[in-house]
Write a structure and sequence with these properties.
The structure is a single chain. The chain has 12 helices and 13 strands. The protein has 386 residues and is of the alpha/beta class. The protein folds into 3 domains: 53 residues, no CATH class; 193 residues, 3-Layer(aba) Sandwich (Rossmann fold), CATH 3.40.50.1100; 91 residues, Rossmann fold, CATH 3.40.50.1100. α3 packs parallel to α4, α3 crosses α7 and α7 crosses α8. The longest helix has 16 residues.
Length: 386
């Protein structure tokens, strides 16, 4: 495995030890990221060798924080499908969809939690906890159960019932709270003093990014190492975008790809703190979003931790930020569903955002565009009923 250190993305402090569980920078509370010495990887691993391995994101283990493949906690993660979308009579000339609803527990959160749980197991962690709008909790519960860990989850009480049941039946200690994911985080912090759990919160530890970054490797290989020009990603806390940004940076350093796609974040107009911060040229989200309300519960994150890093990823890749209304999300869900792609509201927001971007000439129709579909609709109540 590649030699690695942890580096604070805010103050630049380098933390040499990666042999004990790490959270945020002890100096400035910034987000920690793994930094690898990729030279040995480039010398011993090639795209041709990777082509001979089974299509799972574990095939990229040389660039993951594990020291041994024996510690992998897996539920059979496949490469998720890459589909060309031809709807629109030529309006979409080079549009692709990446469907992460095919992953264990039905969402892209499986990527981050698979790597996080595997690494924490290797480091001797036996109890983990997370505040979640739903899908991160389900993924952590599944991989925690597989690893024999005790899992504690804190979720808003309006989390889809199927996700709550999923966590309960897989053995998590579930705590429901009034309010948003921010309230769930406060509740977890309140009870944390009485427990010896490791906090796996979004952007408050470096492990989950490593699972999301492998999506960049997967996308690059699926596109024959010539990635899309533009990727639209539904964004609540923003860890998926940070992970993709990190992954494509590493791919360029390895010499396996030549460019980083422009990364565009998509939020609901009912909770769009990152979009607001982007257009107001803020370094980070300065104030929590008031009264968040959207059918896309995974996007309902009023004050994401480490927001400066999400905004940096968007700006450095020359991407943008788009907010869409719930009505546009529902319309896009209908479009995708009637084309056989059964996605959740968060995922459908990317198609709504693309329609807006094409209309406003933010994205050119002839660009190679990828909509990142983060999850399946199977766990959500039917939004068209009632």
């Amino acid at each position: 495995m590649a030699k690695q250190v942890l580096v604070c993305s805010s103050c630049g402090e380098v933390h040499q030890s990666t042999t004990s569980p790490a959270s945020i920078c002890p100096k400035c509370r910034g987000v920690l990221l793994f930094k690898y010495d990729l030279s040995p990887v480039a010398n011993t691993l090639s795209r041709e060798i990777l082509a001979t391995r089974s299509p799972s994101f574990w095939k990229f283990i040389e660039v993951l924080p594990l020291t041994s493949s024996k510690n992998i906690v897996s539920l059979g993660e496949p490469f998720t499908p890459l589909l060309q979308f031809t709807l629109g009579r030529g309006r979409y000339s080079n549009l692709w969809l990446k469907d992460d609803g095919r992953l264990p527990t039905g969402t892209f959160k499986a990527r981050g939690m698979a790597v996080a749980v595997s690494t924490l197991k290797e480091l001797g962690v036996s109890q983990v906890a997370v505040p979640s709008a739903g899908n991160a909790a389900a993924a952590l519960t599944a991989y925690g159960a597989r690893a024999g860990m005790q899992v504690f989850v804190f979720m808003p009480n309006d989390t889809p019932p199927r996700i709550i049941d999923e966590c309960v039946h897989m053995g998590a200690k579930v705590h429901l709270v009034d309010g948003s994911i921010s309230a769930a985080g406060q509740a977890m912090k309140k009870y944390g003093a009485d427990h010896n759990w490791f906090d796996v919160s979004t952007n408050k530890q470096p492990y989950r990014y490593e699972g999301y970054k492998v999506a960049a490797y997967e996308i690059a290989e699926q596109f024959s190492w010539n990635p899309p020009d533009h990727i639209l990603f539904p964004t609540g806390g923003g860890e998926g975008v940070i992970g993709l940004w990190k992954g494509f940076q590493e791919l360029c350093e390895l010499g396996w790809t030549k460019h980083i796609p422009r990364l565009t974040i998509v939020q609901s107009s009912g909770c769009a703190p990152l979009v607001t911060a982007f257009y107001e040229n803020q370094r980070e989200v300065e104030e929590p979003w008031k009264n968040p309300n959207t059918i896309a519960v995974g996007l309902k994150v009023p004050h994401p931790y480490g927001s400066y890093l999400v905004l940096r990823a968007v700006r450095e890749t020359k991407g943008t930020a788009i907010q869409v209304a719930d009505e546009e999300i529902l319309s896009s869900m209908k479009t995708l569903w009637t084309n056989g792609i059964y996605v959740c509201p968060e995922a459908a927001s990317t198609l709504a955002a693309l329609e807006q971007a094409l209309t406003e000439n933010i994205i050119a129709n002839d660009e190679k565009i990828l909509l990142y579909l983060t999850g399946t609709a199977l766990k959500y109540p039917d939004p068209f009923k009632g």
